[in-house]
Design a protein that fits this description.
The protein is mostly helical. The protein has helices at residues 2-27, 37-46, 48-82, 84-99, 102-113, 118-141, 145-153, 158-195, 201-210, 214-242, 244-252. The chain has a single domain (34-252), classed as MetI-like (MetI-like fold, Orthogonal Bundle), CATH 1.10.3720. The chain has eleven helices and no strands. The longest helix is centred in the C-terminal third of the chain and has 38 residues, at 158-195.
Length: 253
């Protein structure tokens, strides 16, 4: 099952790249309009040091925003499930924060937080915390009522119900939320680099666009894709280690 899941996407991507290469070659499309995949790979290899340095900064911003998402997202989810009053008060506000376009508030964050790393970290956090909070809250609530009633019958405290039933039950939901949150944290980091700063792959894409260096844009996107896939798979591996029973049932479907 795992081999099939890896093989089919790989074949599809390879076919797409071959068609892309053939179209660029046959139509003699100029590089500034659409570089060929081989040209993008050559450019990335020739400028590996440049790409690596900017990629490190984007990863740095992404990880910090992601860690902030984990810390605040976990606490917020537990508080939402713990108190119905807190849920009724905070949940609509959380939804409202997702309706506001993040690109629109990015310049405001620069005004309030300056041109350092903080605006980018906050944008990465804002973009990524919503799916984690939603998934973890769903997992905490998705406990069988009979199990909760049984624990309460044995005089378990509210926290013991969380520790023994709700939190273990939410682990698969958390893992899926973390996967989504990680990809959104990368997007948030890039958006932040668009708005402020002079480092990162987002900044590199912005510069490349201004100078019509399309091949640099595609190269930066390629590196972003690699980073996203690696971080996504790292969370998946962590999930299989933490919850092997869930990983086996998911792979069997």
């Amino acid at each position: 099952m795992n081999i099939r899941r890896a093989l089919f996407p790989s074949l599809a991507i390879a076919a797409m790249l071959i068609v892309w290469e053939a179209i660029v070659f046959a139509a003699k499309i100029p590089e500034f309009l659409l570089p060929s995949p081989s040209r993008v790979l050559i450019f990335t290899y020739e400028n590996a040091s440049l790409m690596f340095n900017h990629a490190l900064y984007t990863i740095f911003i992404t990880v910090l925003g992601f860690v902030l998402t984990i810390l605040l997202g976990f606490a917020l989810s537990i508080a939402i499930v713990w108190s119905a009053t807190f849920e009724d008060t905070v949940y609509p506000i959380i939804v409202m924060t997702q309706v506001i376009p993040k690109v629109a508030i990015a310049p405001l964050l620069v005004i309030y937080l300056g041109f350092a790393d903080y605006p980018k970290i906050v944008i990465a956090f804002i973009l990524s915390f919503f799916p984690l909070v939603i998934n973890m809250t769903l997992g905490l609530k998705a406990v069988e009522p009979e199990l909760v009633e049984l624990l309460q019958a044995f005089k378990s405290s509210k926290w013991q119900v969380f520790a023994k039933a709700r939190i273990p039950n939410s682990i698969p939901y958390i893992i899926e939320g973390l996967k989504i949150a990680m990809t959104l944290a990368i997007i948030g980091a890039v958006v932040g680099e668009f708005v402020s700063g002079n480092k990162g792959l987002g900044y590199l894409i912005l510069v490349a666009g201004g100078q019509s260096q399309t091949v640099m844009t595609y190269s930066s996107l390629l590196v972003l894709v690699v980073i996203g896939v690696v971080l996504f798979e790292a969370i998946a591996v962590m999930g299989r280690f933490i919850a092997p029973w869930w990983a086996r049932s998911a792979s069997a479907q």
